[in-house]
Amino acid sequence: MKECILFLLILFPFYSFSQQPISISGKLKMKPETTIRIWRYTDNISFERQIIHKTKSNADSSFNVSIPLTETELLNISANEYSTQILFDPGQNYSIDLTPFSNQSGKSLQVSSGSRPLIPQNDLIKAYDIVSDSAISLLFEHTNRRPTSSNIKQFNAVIDKGLLKIDSKYCKDIVQSLRIHFLTMSRANSFSTAINTYYHCDNLPLENPAFQSLVSENFESYFKSGPPSITRYNLFSGIPDSLHYTDLLTTLSVDSSMTCLPIREMALLCNLYSMIKNEELEPQKGNKLLNEGAKKSTSPFNRKLASNLASSLLVKKRGTSLPDFLIISPEGNNISLSNFKGKALHISFFSVKGMADRNLLNQLTDIAHFADSLGVAKFICITTDENREEITKFWKEKKYPMQLYFAPDDYALIDFFNINSFPFFVLLDAEGKLSSLTPNFPGELLLKQIINLQSVGNQYPIHNQADQKSAPSILQDHPVKK
To answer: In angstroms, how far is CA 141 from the centroid of its own chain?
Structure first.
């Protein structure tokens, strides 16, 4: 017992110093009692959301929250469809007002902090201003040609001058990551030359989201193309069970762009995740390799990244059971998703203000009518739009066969599916378990997926986009018992 108390006394000061709460207070200039969500991305590969805090604005639209931080971090603050990103330092008090703003680019929350400068947010703004369009254009002055040495020198001079105006290391790493990205993209430097010029392998900003995006984008589809020294796609499409994560790292070490082990680990994890998600790598084999990466990566961040990616795939796995989320009917009643069990359920998340979304609703109508005549599925559409009366009226005028519902402003359902843009489509089986989810409308393939769920007893077959057929031919292939 004494030993336990002594351990806690030793641990307490460390915990106190490592966890430094920040206080965020201010006003949300929307209707009172609107849900405010504060969240982070677990990484810039899967872009899975991790909700840190939820609260509602008070009757006077004010709010006040306390959040533990261990280091400078970029957090997202959202209210309904509006969102913003703010860079926070640990152990500080922040006073901000949030105002919704809409334009052709989308919806955001404008941030104002009165007379007090919002540091380090100002450095974040400077960071993106440094790598401006005018600076980038120096590298792409000559179409279809590599930049000249003069172009490269001018570009680097602009970046170096801008870095002198920034104090935050976090923001400096954003600038350096963007510099390396554009030097590589313009073919001014190879990736290995650029990365070795500005970073040392032992001191990489692996946790910085811009650096993660740099590695991910540079090695995107890495194993499908590239030098014949590594038969990249063949290496992965035919991985024998005897080949492990560490074996793959050794194989990839022959590439000069991946001599740095932490970068090699991150590139490997990114491509494993991409290939599993795109059904180019058998999920069981891919997940086994990711789990090995979570244990055997040399970098603590890459171990965490491997675990994040495996968890992300698990949430999206066919056959996953969903929490019993509530949605809101046009009459204002709360409806449980479990009420729809018994038939396959197709959910379309949409915004009625988007013209592309309206066109998709028209396409969806044809399939919904067809599926309804067969009695094989239910179709619902869920929107986050706030003007419920206007949307309900629009829905009745259009006479859509899909049932209309509204998402609660806690966005629990949106966050569960990690929806970053509309439209978005989810298919559940008759037991309410996940069958598929995609940001792309599957077209006639959707009808085939639904009929397959009915005819094969929910065995979750993997479909290939090339298998699309017309509705009549689908019915011939898959006769449905009513």
So the answer is: 33
CATH code reported for the domain at 21-116: 2.60.40.1120
Predicted confidence (pLDDT) at residue 131 exceeds the cutoff of 90:
yes
pLDDT in tens, 308-344: 999 999 888 888 899 999 999 999 999 999 999 998 9
Say if strands 434-438 and 377-383 run parallel, antiparallel, or are unpaired: unpaired
DSSP 8-state symbol, 63:
E
Handedness of CA 9, 13, 18, 24 (dihedral sign): positive
pTM across the whole model: 0.82
Kindly indicate the confidence band of residue 278, based on its pLDDT and cuts at 50, 70 and 90: confident
Helix (H, G, I), strand (E, B) or coil at 25: strand
Architecture of domain 326-477: 3-Layer(aba) Sandwich (3.40)
Using DSSP's 3-state secondary structure scheme, residue 81 falls into coil
Burial (CB count <10 Å: 0-12, 13-18, 19+), residue 460: middle
Mean pLDDT, residues 108-129: 86
Backbone torsions φ then ψ of 229, nearest 5 degrees: -60, -25
How many CB atoms are located within 10 Å of the residue 46 CB? 21
Q: How far apart are CA 328 and CA 61, in angstroms?
A: 24
Q: Fill in the amino acid letter for 26.
A: G
Classify residue 28 as left (phi > 0), alpha (psi -120 to 50) or beta.
beta
Rounded Cα–Cα distance for residues 345 and 432 (Å): 8
Distance (Å, rounded) from C-alpha 348 to C-alpha 427?
Answer: 9
CA separation for the pair 386, 407 (Å, rounded): 9
* DSSP E strand stretches across 80-229: 82-88, 93-103, 106-112
How many whole angstroms separate alpha carbon 310 and alpha carbon 315? Answer: 9
Closest CA to 178 of 209, 223, 146, 220: 209
DSSP state of 442: -
Q: Choose among 212, 196, 203, 332: nearest CA to 265.
A: 212
Render 330-395 in DSSP notation, one character per residue.
TTS-EEEGGGGTTSEEEEEEE-TT-HHHHHHHHHHHHHHHHHHHHT-EEEEEEE--S-HHHHHHHH
C-alpha R_g of the chain: 25
Amino acid symbol at 358: R
Domain ranges of the chain: 21-116, 120-202, 219-315, 326-477
Are 395 and 401 within 8 A, CB to CB? no
pLDDT in tens, 10-58: 444 444 446 789 999 999 999 999 999 999 999 999 999 999 999 999 9
- The pLDDT of residue 117 is 66
